[in-house]
Write a structure and sequence with these properties.
This protein is mostly helical and 231 residues long. It has helices spanning 2-28, 31-52, 60-89, 96-113, 123-149, 153-175, 186-216.
Amino acid sequence: MKELLFMLADLCMIFAGFFYGWKFVRRYGNYLLGLEWMIVATSGTNFLLWSLLGADEGSVLYSVAYFFDAFSRSVGITLILVLGLRRVTHRYKPSVAVDVGVFALAIGAGLYLQQFRAPELHVGPATFYVVVNVITTLFLAYFSCRLWRIGAKGLAIGAGLVTAAASVIAITYDFFPIPGDDEHRTLFYIAALAIWGFQMFVYFIAYRALHNHNVETGVEPASNEPSVARA
C-alpha cells in the first residue's frame, strides 16, 4: 500500500509540474516558473524510474536524483520561484541574462550540494536549505496577502496552507525523520511529493488570479499575454 501511495503521489507531482509548467510558458511567457516546474517534474520522473528499477543506491539515477533535489531546494523553489512570482506582484520581467544566470546558479548549486547525502546529517547544507526556505516563505506570505487584498480569499488561504505544509516538509527533510519510516523514507516522500505537487497547482492558479486582476485593473496590459494562449 505504501508503494502504491508513493507512486500516486509522484505521478501527481509529475503531472502538475509538466502541465502547469507548460502553461506558465505558453500562456504567460514566464520561463522562470515554467522551466522550474518542468524540472521538478523531471526530477519526479527520475525518482519514479529509480524506484521501479530497484532503488539501487549505486545507480546513476540515484546521483541524478540528488542533483535535482539540491537544484530545487537551493535555488529553484526559492530564488527562481520568488523571481517568477514577482511578475504578478511587482511586474518584474527579468532579462534573458537573468533567466540564464539563475538557472546556471541552480545548476552549480545542485552539482556542489548533491555530494551531501543521507543517511549522514550534514548540518551546514541542511541548515542552508532551511534558511533559504524560511526566506522564501516570507515572500510567499506576502504573495498570499496580495491574493487576499484582491478578494481571492480562498486562494490566499490555500496558498498559505500549502506554503506552511511545504515549510514543514523542508524542516522535516533532514532534521526530523518520521518515526517508524523505512530506510527509503517512503512515508516522508508520500507526504512530500503530494505537497509539492499541490504546491505547484495552487501557485499556478494563484498566479493566474493575480495576473487576471492586473489586466482587469489596467496594471498589466492584456496585450502582454501571448496571443497563442487564447487559442
